[in-house]
Amino acid sequence: MTPRLYLKPRRARPLFGHHPWVFERAIGRIEGEPKAGDAVELRTDRGEFVAHGLFNPNSAIRVRLYSWRQEKPINEEMIARRVHDAIRFRRQTLGLGKSHAACRLIYSESDGLSGVIADRFSDVVTLQINSLAVSRFEPTIVNSIQEILQPRTIYRRVDAAIAELERLTLSEELLAGELPSGPTVIEESGVEFVTDPIHGQKTGAYLDQRDNRLAVARYASGRSMLDVFCYAGGFGLVAGRHGATSVTCVDASADAISLARQNGMRNNIPLELRQGDAAGVMSDLTRSGRTFGVVSCDPPKFAAKGADLEGAMRGYEYINRLAIGLVEPGGILSTCSCSGLVTPQAFLEMLTTASQKSERELRVLEVRGQSPDHPVSLYCPETAYLKCVIARVM
Fold first, then answer.
1. What does the pLDDT read at residue 202?
2. Whether residue 338 lies in the annotated active site
3. What's the gap between Cα 155 and its chain centre?
4. Annotated active-site residue in 103, 338, 380, 388
5. Among 141, 166, 182, which residue terminates a domain?
6. CA-CA distance, 221 to 344, in Å (whole number)?
7. Phi, psi of 73 (to 5 degrees)
8. Domain containing 166: what range?
9. What is the pLDDT of residue 162?
10. What pTM does this model have?
């Protein structure tokens, strides 16, 4: 008999609403002895069926839910079907199936595969399993990706922080095919980018900003561009391809600056490169009297947990005040936050404060999110994490 987990009273509403996470504190009692990765039934305190899920006794997310139909239990066929559906959507509907394209193939909860992330970089696929419970289906996921895409490489990446929380013992390794013999080149908005899916930041590149890079580039034609937290030079290079008169890139990482340099040379786009702390470099530019027609500010996640939030908002305000000061009158600021704990409203309120303290008026032109290969599940608001505001600075 399938083990059953019974919720405490008044804990079922969001789970009936298809939110896929069941936290330990919501569970009242357990019938049976489920082990890590076992399929379980979730029921209300009165015994009503809620959903089928996978159990992990070591995680704060005690159960991840995958099916809300009692007659549809979790099995390999279900997982394979969802992998195929996710990939077909990217290829057929979004048109991201070209030979040198890059995109997110599977986006966890938004594709009905909680705990699974897969990204494609040309003929290389990186797979990240972020749940001990779903790791038992890794061979099914790999086989499904091979069947539909036939990539040269499928490689497992591991997020160390998540692995620790989930008690995952997986290591980074080749899962199928062969390791790339050199850099992997992808194409985006007319720009070729050298990526390193095996060792690079995140799972190889920041694919969630694809459409935002192009949106900012539309404002950059005929203007100078400053790309702060540039990593591989993404915002700056796309702007350069679409008519920016000059591009200055800033990043603290020597490896990131080297990668941006390679990408600039590969695309014949001249870059002024500055390695250093973003706040320090922006302060130096301010003291030297530099201004730019467009400033892009795309920092790393400032708030990984609730306790970080207050400090994160101070950090966002500080760097945005510096960024605003570097925009020429009538120019454009593009500013982002990938911290899921920072709500869109809080981000806009922070920008209001930053503009007031800078004594510069901001007129918001666009409020954007992640690219559509990172779709947002209305049942799981946590899947909406990226904020991108494009504003005119007066």
1. 61
2. yes
3. 18
4. 338
5. 182
6. 28
7. -70, 165
8. 76-182
9. 85
10. 0.93
